[in-house]
Amino acid sequence: MKKDTEKLTIPFKKVNSETVIPKPSKKGDVGADAHIMGFKKIVNENGKKELIEINNNTYILKPLERIGCPLGFATAIPEGYYFKVVPRSGLALWEGLSIVNSPGTIDTGYRNEWMAVVVNLSNADVTLRKGERICQIILGKIHHYEFKETDDLAESERGLGGFGSTGKK
Q: Bridge partners of 50?
């Protein structure tokens, strides 16, 4: 079996001099860890929506609060690919942190700084620090498809069952 050794090159631009280039923690990991390079407070008042930059090295995220965490870089993802921004499992399990729109999607044409929208799903404050790993980014391949409208779908063993219909055991 031939091993594919050709790597996809993704142009990467640091937006912050302290930016850490995302990389997998261990050989064979699919996700590359990305680090917090700043904080952007989400303000939505009187129909006006904006992100306010917080100039601190730490941010205390209250239960059920969201914060934008800039990742310090922008990319030019090659045609036919995209990235997913997903939670780190340890932060989800131990801290109750997640990515609100998980997976966040970074499309081929996006050229602005990447940002993880982090939410605290726990019942305790969580302190976030610049430079800490906050999420993983996973490269995906775009599959072109279209839906075809029909009145009938092929039968399956599952049928119309869903939302726990297969039980817990």
A: 43
